[in-house]
Design a protein that fits this description.
It contains one helix and seven strands; from the N terminus they run H-E-E-E-E-E-E-E. With about 120 residues, the protein is mostly beta strands.
């Protein structure tokens, strides 16, 4: 099934609320809007997490590493078990590819934590 990312992005209602747009094997393909610093430090013990910047800029913070900015077209994989968080001062549209077993904010619960059911359209 063909997916139009811009059309799916227009459906996003809230920041920090990923939506599942497809599945590949045992992975979810998600999109999300990011603006602000609400995502807590967290990790995914057993799963890598792929970030792809569709539009905008994203600050990637990795524990014990220098922070870096990702821009439109950039891709980065956070290895399993690595503490990280992301933020953006302006609207940023991202694609995430995560194992179906991955929790939104790892084992950290916050006001933005979403269940898999909350991530479905």
């Amino acid at each position: 099934m063909k997916i139009e990312l811009n059309k799916e992005a227009n459906k996003l209602q809230n920041y920090f609320s990923p939506k599942i747009i497809s599945e590949v094997n045992n992975e979810y393909v998600k999109i999300a809007k990011i603006k602000g610093e609400e995502i807590p430090w967290h990790n995914h013990d057993k799963e890598d997490e792929l970030f792809y910047i569709i539009e905008g800029s994203l600050l990637m913070e990795i524990e014990n590493k220098p922070n870096f900015v990702m821009n439109t077209g950039d891709l980065f994989v956070v290895p399993k078990g690595v503490n990280h968080r992301v933020s953006s001062s302006e609207d940023c549209l991202i694609m995430l590819i995560e194992s179906k077993s991955a929790k939104h904010t790892g084992d950290v619960k916050s006001t933005i934590t979403k269940s898999i059911d909350d991530q479905k359209y």
